[in-house]
Amino acid sequence: MNGPVGTSAERVDGPARVSGGYRYLGDIRLPDVLHAKLVTLDCARARIRSIDASAARRVPGVVQVLTAADLPQPVPRFGPQFRDRPVLAVAETKYHGEPVAAVAAETLAAAEDAARLIRVEYEELPAVCTIAAALAQGAPLVQDPALRLGDPLANTNVLQEHRYAWGDTETAASDLIVAGTYTFPMVTHFAIERHGCIAARDGDGITIWSTIQHPFWLQRTIAELLSLPLAKVRVVAPDPGGGFGGKQHAKYEPLVAFMAMRAGRPVRLILTLEETFQAVRRTSAQVRVRTGFRADGAITFREVDADYLLGAYADIADRLVSKGSYVSCGPYRIPAARIVARSILSHTLPSTAFRGFGAPQPLWASESNMDEAARALGIDPVELRLRNLARRGEQFIPGDTPADGAWEQTVRKAAELVGWGTPVPAGRGRGIAVGIKPGPTTGLSYATVRLLADGSVVMSSGTSDMGQGARTVYVQIAAEELGVPMDRITLLMGDTAVVCYDQQTSASRSTVLMGNAITYACREVQAQLRTMAARHCQVDESAIEVARGVVRLPDRQIPIGEFVRLGLGRLGGEVIGIGESRKEHVPGHPLSGSPVFFEFNCTAVDAEVDAETGDILLVRHVTVSDVGKAINPMQVRGQDEGAAIQGLGHTLMEQYILDESGRISNLGALDYRIPTSMDLPLQLCSDVVENADGPGPYGAKGMSEGALLCVAPAVAAAVTDATGAVIRDLPLTAERVWRALSTPAADSSPTATATAAADEQRRCADGT
């Protein structure tokens, strides 16, 4: 009989989510709670001269007004990479939306009224909000050099510089060099659930309720800021209503924690949608790619220079710069490469993790560069990729994790599904691109599995389920291993006082790392059942097998549910298994460790372009991912389709618009466009390649980010195929496409120069 793994089992939390029965953070109500409201300035950068809260304090119901002066001095700072972010702005605001004060009142209305009455005297200061401005000579420094002691870059707006190289790009012989500069926009996560948190004293400790993706990381952050032991900090994290990386790390939880401890009462802060827009975003980037080719299409070298615009504080963004740029040459065999990626500080809201974690930005550039080369060489874009694609077991980054899939199968399947090579009508074109992202490079997950006396199961996991379906996958794994029906398994998640430690929910690690931990815990239960059976039945343990829900003895087999009652006897009890999945830090590795797996995707699109308006109609969008093993095929398709549509956002329409002083002009759903049903492809086709070659349970690999990675270059290639216009700046808005179509063809020709002479190998025409 087949088990649940590999089937599209019903989501264990599905009915509650679709019926409105699930309790998100916003549904939690505590007695005696105070409501908080932030106070911000209407500019990006300002020197704070004074804050007058006297009128606010007189508002009926106001219990507390907190400014930086009311916090421990110096004002505590926090951050997952660098402790550079103050709980409240100190002396100067660094971005539009940074809070300078906060109000707590008996009602939200009272808090809002009081916040409006706080008078801040400030002097607006020049702000640097673009890469060029931040790097300009004499530019204002975003961070005080005193915060960067010992950092040779402290007197610049470059936070970090990451360099990777192999081979010699200066001596690589090439018949063609293709170069170009590509820009990627600043976009927001736009999770349906807004950011929020609640904090309350808990005896001599504190409890935090948060939409956070990493509850144990938040626990550590709060413990450090409040000088509490970890055991005195409890984080309750209900499943977030979408995260996409934007809820990985602390934003306003430290502020609310200080307010709650000071007030001695629970404090609740739920951001508005506009405030959420000012809390998290994806890094924008400018990427220059320069690639050498032989006449047969083989890549001879590639150089990538990537500048990512982080924002005012580092958050986790510098980590995504290092990890995303690490694979910026793509999944190709390239004998010589040089990659330089810089994290640039600016007076813009801090960026953070976003689905794809730094990889979509350089992949937009490198895959567009491949298409320009294909046109210049006269080689089919699919064929050019297949000729250079790393094969299974081949180290495409020297000394690191080799290609872990038959990636050419993914490319061929996507090309077939989009109808590659078949005729298209005038005004239509096709494009294809591949994307790759490193999986987790370090990690630690624990799980417990308790087989109870009646054969039912209770599990615990520290992973957050923010819609990726982790709950269902974990129950499927336990049901497969123990032979217990899924509806007899209970899974506990989201409470650091109840569940085992999990480092974080990110990097598509949930199925692999936590999935393995659950598998190991189940197998420890099986081992204990073998020992129990040997003792109970007086049979040598080597003659007993426990698998797929049965205990097999030499003369008979007994269902686990029946056997556990016999084995535990009249006293009852339970059989407990603990599983651990660990990926250690590797000293000296540029990413702290080699990737556990790679997410690989191929996206192909068929697009129609209206030459009169520049509007793009996606006739067919194909996404194919290499997943190893789809534990729940429907969930895999749902994740890939969701990622594909999210990728259409930054490809076609999404972008923050800043005015001359760095204020965000398009806050909120009315002025910031995301894809709606009117923008979706007429046909969306998702498929997978399964070779059971991953490191997770049953050969699974992590997925759910891959289908977003290369949407932009695939769509742009289709636009070029349909119109001849080459566009290197995202998003591909109708206006931008229309303007490109209105430009003489010579100005949008591929930036390539062919030569065989050695002294011409480094020449290229930019065409920008």
The tally of structural domains comes to: 3
CATH topology of the largest domain: Aldehyde Oxidoreductase, domain 4
- Helical percent range? 25-40%
Question: Ends: how far apart?
Answer: 62 Å
Structural class: alpha+beta
Report on the structure:
Helix content is 26%, strand content 25%. The longest helix has 28 residues, at 510-537. Strand 27 (616-626), helix 15 (633-652) and strand 28 form a beta-alpha-beta unit. It contains 18 helices and 29 strands. It has three domains: 25-125 and 189-277, Alpha-Beta Complex (Aldehyde Oxidoreductase, domain 3), CATH 3.90.1170; 357-439 and 595-758, Aldehyde Oxidoreductase, domain 4; 443-583, Aldehyde oxidase/xanthine dehydrogenase, molybdopterin binding domain (Aldehyde Oxidoreductase, domain 4). Mean pLDDT is 94; it is low at 746-768. Strands 3-7-1-14-11-12-13 form a seven-stranded mixed sheet, with helices on both faces. It has a six-stranded mixed sheet with strand order 9-17-16-15-10-29. A four-stranded mixed sheet has the order 18-26-27-28, sandwiched between helices. By secondary structure, it is an alpha+beta fold.
